[in-house]
TrEMBL record:
GO molecular function, one term: lyase activity
Transmembrane segments: none
Name listed for the protein in its UniProt record: CoA ester lyase
Record domain HpcH/HpaI aldolase/citrate lyase: where: 17-235
Source species: Pseudohoeflea coraliihabitans
InterPro entries (UniProt xref): Aldolase/citrate-lyase_domain (IPR005000), Citrate_lyase_beta/mcl1/mcl2 (IPR011206)
Top-level taxon of origin: Bacteria
Cofactor(s), by name: Mg(2+)
Pfam families: HpcH_HpaI
Keywords, comma-separated and alphabetical: Lyase, Magnesium, Metal-binding
Parts forming coiled coils: none
Amino acid sequence: MTADALTRDRRPVHLRRSWLFLPGADRQDLSAAATCGADVLIQEFEDFTVPERRREARQLCEEIFTAWRSAGRLAAARINPLESADGPQDLRAVMAGRPDIVLLPKCDRAAQVARLDGAIEALEKQLDLPRGRIEIVPNIESARGLVAAADIATASPRVTALLLASEDMAADLDAERNPGGSELDYVRQRFRLECAAAGVTAIDCPYTFADIEGLRRETRQARQWGFKAKSLVTPAHASVINEELTPDRRSIEKARRVLTAFDAARIGGAERASVDGHAVELPTANAARRLIARANAFDAWDSRFSAPPSDAPKRG
């Protein structure tokens, strides 16, 4: 099977809502995560795995990645930086497991991405793996990384998304963390803008507090800013993130009303329509079309794996 065919069989990047980090050496947590609902599962070799257990974590890659893919999840790993002693060892073990995605931590310059790209390509040849199917997702964890985000995002054709950190970013800024997250508002908005300009998916930072309602509020805010994906460190957060980042019936119905009103106005020779007191012009109509297209894309993807009963309600 070609690399293109293999890539077509995985959930498209714009439909990957939830990216879950998991302790790299904890077999029980890694196995259990397959049923939590997160779209992407990440075996984490850096902060979540103490150096003494990294060798143990490397021995789990093939088994865990196979189990995740069998459950319909994307198999990813965050290795240590290639500049470290552990990074190259992590990458070789991960590559033997045929990951879908490799995440690069603490990325603050394009050269790091180029080096990882070259290392992956070399191992694809050595291990006789399909060329080019493995994606790279650099992690932006510092002010320096944020201002270099555009260069990082375009440093390799393998880069499909960037992921924003919360705790390390706040520490780099010497900012005080709070459940409301206001200290990272500018960072998150700037990050979203940089990713949009570079044409890659922006993965919002994780909500690292236990409050589910706080998670819901932060995810809704992310959605309003244009995020379509969010990372997480708690498996129980996956269902909330997936719900908030999937178009619901109400938003779909409103989008359809917007399009109906706009199309009718255009037919009548007007440049705009009014829906719920909001002036609907071409950009608003296009946004409504994108939302409906996103909802249809989820339906099309889901229909590949399960056929709902004939009497099941349709989301749209």
